[in-house]
Amino acid sequence: MNYLQFDRERPLDLILLGRVAIDFNPLDYFKTLAQSETFKKYVGGSPANIAVGLSRLGKKCGFFARVSDDRFGDYVTEYFDNEGIDTSRIRRCENGEKLGLTFTEILSENESSILMYRNDIADLQLDVQDIDEAYIKQGKALLISGTALAASPSREAALKAVAIAKRTHTPVFFDIDYRPYNWKNSDEIAIYYSMVAAQSDVILGSREEYDLTEALIEPGRTDAQTAVYWQGRGAKIVVIKHGKQGSTAYTCDGNSYSIKPFPVKALKSFGGGDGYASAFLYGLFEGWEMMDCLELGSASASLLVASHGCSADMPSVEKVRAFIAQCKKEYGEMVARS
Amino acid sequence: MNYLQFDRERPLDLILLGRVAIDFNPLDYFKTLAQSETFKKYVGGSPANIAVGLSRLGKKCGFFARVSDDRFGDYVTEYFDNEGIDTSRIRRCENGEKLGLTFTEILSENESSILMYRNDIADLQLDVQDIDEAYIKQGKALLISGTALAASPSREAALKAVAIAKRTHTPVFFDIDYRPYNWKNSDEIAIYYSMVAAQSDVILGSREEYDLTEALIEPGRTDAQTAVYWQGRGAKIVVIKHGKQGSTAYTCDGNSYSIKPFPVKALKSFGGGDGYASAFLYGLFEGWEMMDCLELGSASASLLVASHGCSADMPSVEKVRAFIAQCKKEYGEMVARS
Amino acid sequence: MNYLQFDRERPLDLILLGRVAIDFNPLDYFKTLAQSETFKKYVGGSPANIAVGLSRLGKKCGFFARVSDDRFGDYVTEYFDNEGIDTSRIRRCENGEKLGLTFTEILSENESSILMYRNDIADLQLDVQDIDEAYIKQGKALLISGTALAASPSREAALKAVAIAKRTHTPVFFDIDYRPYNWKNSDEIAIYYSMVAAQSDVILGSREEYDLTEALIEPGRTDAQTAVYWQGRGAKIVVIKHGKQGSTAYTCDGNSYSIKPFPVKALKSFGGGDGYASAFLYGLFEGWEMMDCLELGSASASLLVASHGCSADMPSVEKVRAFIAQCKKEYGEMVARS
Amino acid sequence: MNYLQFDRERPLDLILLGRVAIDFNPLDYFKTLAQSETFKKYVGGSPANIAVGLSRLGKKCGFFARVSDDRFGDYVTEYFDNEGIDTSRIRRCENGEKLGLTFTEILSENESSILMYRNDIADLQLDVQDIDEAYIKQGKALLISGTALAASPSREAALKAVAIAKRTHTPVFFDIDYRPYNWKNSDEIAIYYSMVAAQSDVILGSREEYDLTEALIEPGRTDAQTAVYWQGRGAKIVVIKHGKQGSTAYTCDGNSYSIKPFPVKALKSFGGGDGYASAFLYGLFEGWEMMDCLELGSASASLLVASHGCSADMPSVEKVRAFIAQCKKEYGEMVARS
After folding, report:
1. Is D144:D158 a contact under the CB 8 Å cutoff?
2. What Cα–Cα distance (Å) separates residue A45 from each residue in A65, A276, D216?
3. D67 to chain A nearest CA, in Å?
4. Does position D270 have pLDDT exceeding 90, yes or no?
5. What is the spatial distance between Cα A243 and Cα B280, in angstroms, rounded to a whole number?
């Protein structure tokens, strides 16, 4: 069943709105960040990773963003160009704001932490002036990264994009993507997450992220209650993630579909979510069955946590499929489907 | 017909959220502000005026506000206490923010302008921490002044209050109360006005204010289209004002009721809206017919524009009724209703 | 003896740098500010008062200032024009900053307090770009009001003006004029006051103000030590005020001259210092003996505390002289000199 | 001749005030910053490098600084501890300010550029509260890095430290260390540089840096004029650098001493100045002849530009001496002295 109707005439598959940043991952890992001495740089930021992921899967993406007016701004823009992402709506900051940086500490395969540079940050300078209806009408769907809601003026730029998406019948995907930085308090989080969730067709988040979203409405919901509530506000698909326990997609016809992670030797504990999102959304655009969407998402997630980078290691369809085939051969057909 | 159900058990009639300020109106008026030399000070600010108005009409009001931690903060708090308004949720600012000031230029009875002091302003410091469910549950209704949405953290405080009101089945009144100060751009206005309007039971505004509210949804609506749209989102009563041409209340049963101003010799061109709102809402709380609500509102508005002050000249029920009776005697029963 | 040499070719007597503001003094005084209901507006701010005072005494003044871009900015500029003060270097603010306001509480003739509006304030927006050598070279002397040092960018504008004054052999007068507003801590006060004092030819201040100035150099000095120290840095005249006990001018030839207040029925406890400064500096420009300068200053101070306004009540030479003559007739020739 | 008298009783040789930061230098250099993929991290920031340099030469340093309250703050503090630098006056920031980052682009041995992260920066949060007389009295000298003057509150902290140094007879070294970041305009630079230069015993800067310092006093001076002027204000030694043409120390007895760079194969074009300063100041503390101070400084500078890091490659006395000896053997005794 197709839960969403995409306008096939529109040239872009997905327009993403949110941050582009740079990751510095240690090459001498399994040490503290203070001890790690050499770092490899990657384009990062959750929506940037998803855009690269979808592009490598063959989908055409556009991006609303602000980047720094310096060599790092050049770097990420050129990287997007090389990946085939349309950068016509990526603008430079005008007051010296800098691109976000994420320095990763990889203590072990299960323990990672990050040190973020997000003061006076480029991505949150996205402005209502940057958002135009003409561009949104070129996209089959719009993805809002929740981090874009953390502060003005990016917050209002995102809310304007959602308003225009509704007016132009463009499905809205909401990747809650909670990051504690830049938010002032939990009430703000609840207010703005719930505002976008109520206007979204597809919502992706962890249980903790839904709890943040629902804090002013009704705390303590079960997954099923969460799904019913947001479907009552218009959502077609509500995906709720539980880390290593797997995730479930609740569809507006009352069904639910669950997937587990694929077995893999992890190198780091992050990046999986962006692999998941890009591959899952790829399936949606292709009109696949929900279980197939989830399987591709879960396999991509597993590949990502086993890699050193995020954007740089986003796989092709062939690579994910080969990985799934190999896992099934090794562990059985139901390896992730439980 | 009663469009709204109030919980008669709740001790406060209306809890208002918004600004308390000070007006300085010239005593030597019909001059430019530069030429006017002596000024009389009044408690002001649209929601403050409405609170005083409703109190004088016999209703019990509470108020969520931040005021300055100085003698002007003392002044407005004591004034509210004297008027019988509950000031338990009026908190002092902690970082030197000052109470808003409005200096009025009265050039003629038709030409007024204002010079506002609203930099680093006390009222916009209202914070999500200031808003508590226990208090909202004591009010039969909650009134949000649109000016409170102009900037953070007051913006989120107002949105939190609305969220709690919805959760606690407290009717929400939205007085759009547009002031150009403090807003950054028209998209912001459209985003936040529409967000509160979509959750309100009663909306009060001028045609221009509805245009601002609807700018990202569908510009150029007629009054009837506006009423139908917001009633579709849950509003029971949509009041649209057209200045001297009068105003119309559209009710959710598909009816509409119009009123014109009462004839009066104006001294100034402001303050009428707050007299209107307080008397109209008084009628709603009393369960009156819509036309009677509107007539009281229109009569109070006329009394206000003929007075030097705003809060200080809010009339008692007896005074408005006497004025209506006198107008009807002089100009005929249908003086404002035609 | 002439302690200062003025370049008689220069068309302006004094160029002042600092704040122009508006005073609102209650007409129904001897009440708290909350109780006072009617206010009279005056041009105010210490250097503005001194400029008006000097103009009325027949001297030509210029002014470096920023004022608000609104009707209050019009008001003060027009007022200066009418008083004959050159306003060519008074610029409007560009980001909505407002003119400072001072609301006065007059509880009794000895107890006054003020409530100041100085958030996002126009005068502290004076910028290094506003200061030009061509103008400074037109003035026989430059007066820096210490309040201009309280924050950037006005702080650097004042320091630049001093640097140019030194380069162009323009005597610098420093009116310490301490106001607690806008300063962040006492170290900042000590740093910037001492920086300007060390480059000044004439310094005017109260004992408390010199203590603030010397806090990082050597706290606890006597008046004589203070005078010797600043004269060692180049000062020609050091005036130290002790309120009702009178004041003393220490000159660089090792002499000192003291004056007491003239007997007068005070209405308020402020404004005297500005009357003092303008009349004292008038004497300096005229090349008078030090005692005559002080006597005129003290008499003007007494006239001011007996008046309702400050700028509006600055006296002419004739008026001060008549007042001195009358006091001497009534109380004896040495009434203030003893 | 000893131009400076140090109090041998004081336990610390030099107390430095300024920034501690982190450098990320590319391992795959001779590429653009966008193309470089791997980076090595070093403790950086000019005064931090000088402190490490002096420590390795056997001098005991202290440091007034603010660092970030995160793992990078841990990193630099631990690094200082390991180098034997006293970190008792290195405090953590309290509002999320971050340590400065410098990403270096090394295009060739002559072309380097840097991308700095200095928004909301830790080092400029140094506050007057952080500066205490007790500590300054423990240092034989105080070094102010000019970058600390770029913005408040660090600016006032530096000015307070200078005031206390004067009061406690602690010689002041001023390393102008101009960085365009964080300064608002050239007048500010001139005001604050000249303010500290006028109170300094030793000034170190390039010709361009002295031009910035003198812009409001007298532009266009020769080196000799510059030296005479600042010696007239109290400086004992004025060092003026001309890059590859070498540098000259002007002493207050009217002499001057010049040195040239040692021949070396450069890897990068920065870091030399910090090697120079640390070794030159080492010579001063040792009471060496001026030419010997300069020779050690110049040799250390040459070693630094041939190294990948800055702080990490600061040499020991033995290493610099061995390098000098080898150069003299190869190129002749006067290799740098010509």
Report:
1. yes
2. 11, 14, 46
3. 14
4. no
5. 55
List chains adjacent to chain D, taking adjacency as at least 3 C-beta pairs closer than 8 Å. A, C
Q: pLDDT value at position D293?
A: 97
Q: Give the pLDDT score at C133.
A: 98
A97: closest chain D residue by CA:
D119
Residues of chain C in contact with residue D129, where contact means CB-CB under 8 angstroms, are 185
Tokens of B81: 């206490």
Q: What angle, 0 to 180 degrees and rounded to 10, lies between the N-to-C axes of helices C186-197 and C154-167? A: 20
Q: Do A72 and D33 touch (CB under 8 A)?
A: yes
The answer to whether A and B touch (≥3 CB pairs < 8 Å) is: yes
Buried b / exposed e across A76-107, counting CB within 10 Å, b at 16+?
A: bbebbeebebbbebbbebeeebbbbbbbbbbe
- Cβ distance D41 to D24 under 8 Å? yes
The verdict on C292 touching D (C-beta cutoff 8 Å) is: no
Phi, psi of C141, deg, nearest 5: -155, 160
Within an 8 Å CB–CB cutoff, is residue D152 touching chain C? yes
**Cross-chain residue pair A120–D115, CB shorter than 8 Å:** no
B contacts of A167 (beta carbons < 8 Å): 216-218
Partner B contacted by C41 (CB < 8 A)? yes
Query: What is the token pair recorded at B244?
Result: 């001297």
Positions of E strands within chain C: 12-17, 21-26, 38-44, 61-67, 90-92, 100-106, 112-117, 139-145, 172-175, 202-206, 237-241, 247-251, 256-259
Rounded to whole angstroms, the Cα distance separating A120 from B244 reads 48
| pLDDT tens, residue order, chain C (338 aa) | 689 999 999 999 999 999 999 999 999 989 999 999 999 999 999 999 999 999 999 999 999 999 999 999 999 999 999 999 999 999 999 999 999 999 999 888 788 889 999 999 999 999 999 999 999 999 999 999 999 999 999 999 999 999 999 999 999 999 999 999 889 999 999 999 999 999 999 999 999 999 999 999 999 999 999 999 999 999 999 999 999 899 999 999 999 999 999 999 988 888 899 999 999 999 999 999 999 999 999 999 999 999 989 999 999 999 999 999 999 999 999 888 86
pLDDT tens sequence across A211-267: 999 999 999 999 999 999 999 999 999 999 999 899 999 999 999 999 999 999 988
ipTM: 0.94
Residues of C in contact with D159 (CB under 8 A): 191
- Smallest CA–CA separation between C320 and chain D, in Å? 41
- Kindly state the percentage of chain D with pLDDT values over 90: 91
B265-285 tens-digit pLDDT: 988 888 899 999 999 999 999
Quote the minimal CA–CA distance from B164 to chain A in Å. Answer: 7
Question: Is residue D1 very low, low, confident or very high in pLDDT (cuts 50, 70, 90)?
Answer: low
**Alpha-carbon distance D18 to nearest alpha carbon in chain A (angstroms):** 21
- Tens digits of residue pLDDT in B287-296: 999 999 999 9
Task: Quote the percentage of chain C above a pLDDT of 70.
Answer: 99
On chain D, the residues whose CB falls within 8 A of the CB of C153 are: 184
Smallest Cβ distance to D38: which of A27, A101, A115? Answer: A27
Hey, is A67 helix, strand or coil?
Answer: strand
- CA-based nearest distance B67→chain A, Å: 22
Which of 182-221 (A) contact B at CB < 8 A? 184-185, 187-188, 190-191, 194-195, 216-218
Percent of chain B, pLDDT > 90?
91
φ and ψ of B85, to 5 deg = -85, 135
Q: What is the largest CA-CA distance in chain A?
A: 56
Q: What are phi and psi of C334, to 5 degrees?
A: -95, 20
Least CB-CB distance to D71: which of A40, A105, A120?
A: A105
- Does residue A1 have a pLDDT over 70? no
